[in-house]
């Protein structure tokens, strides 16, 4: 097995996809759970999470032919999981797949698509060139890819205490339990409990802020 001389890059980009259904989702946020290629009709299947207002917009877009089909809709709480079918040809995913990129995340919001993927650095110019044929790449950011940087890195104690705090209602307003009482139930000093809890909160918030920076605070 040989070793590649080409470096991997993590790419974050913002795209206005011309006349795609996403370009009609003004004011809406759509979170993609996963995508797959349907060989039977050359369609791109996607599971997305949307709000009630976004669900109405999706139905309108299907009636207008912007979306090929809505296969299934499942409601949970105030959200919907929607199984949609769109054209695979000239889709962002088709371009990324053809160039061997690995998709890590994607969000559609305010008529824009936000993609995070990993690819060889030398392939980035070609990907951008092809994406610009179907839309406008408005912003792109490259960074060295290190899988560990996507992890939050909580210790066992931090995981234990943040889960216990969440279950006990420590983060509720008003709080359902005091830190002193929760620490006592866990068999540790209050100072120990708060130390690990605040470390966990700091790591979680930093991860959230990094993600928001990638999205430019779109939500």
From TrEMBL:
Residues 154-205 form the HTH bat-type domain. It comes from the Archaea. This is HTH bat-type domain-containing protein. It comes from Metallosphaera prunae.
């Amino acid at each position: 097995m040989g070793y590649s001389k080409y470096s991997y890059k993590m790419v974050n980009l913002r795209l206005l996809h011309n006349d795609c259904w996403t370009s009609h989702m003004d004011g809406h946020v759509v979170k993609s759970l996963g995508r797959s290629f349907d060989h039977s009709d050359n369609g791109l299947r996607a599971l997305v999470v949307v709000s009630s207002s976004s669900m109405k917009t999706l139905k309108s877009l299907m009636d207008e032919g912007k979306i090929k089909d809505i296969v299934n809709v499942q409601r949970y709480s105030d959200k919907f999981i929607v199984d949609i079918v769109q054209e695979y040809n000239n889709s962002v995913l088709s371009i990324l797949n053809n160039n061997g990129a690995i998709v890590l995340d994607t969000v559609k919001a305010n008529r824009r698509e936000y993609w995070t993927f990993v690819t060889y650095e030398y392939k980035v110019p070609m990907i951008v060139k092809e994406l610009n044929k179907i839309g406008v790449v408005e912003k792109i950011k490259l960074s060295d890819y290190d899988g560990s940087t996507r992890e939050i890195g909580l210790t066992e104690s931090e995981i234990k205490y943040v889960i216990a705090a969440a279950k006990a209602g420590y983060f509720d307003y008003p709080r359902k339990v005091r830190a002193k009482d929760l620490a006592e139930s866990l068999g540790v000093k209050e100072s120990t409990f708060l130390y690990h809890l605040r470390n966990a909160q700091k790591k979680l918030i930093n991860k959230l802020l990094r993600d928001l920076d990638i999205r430019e605070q779109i939500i």
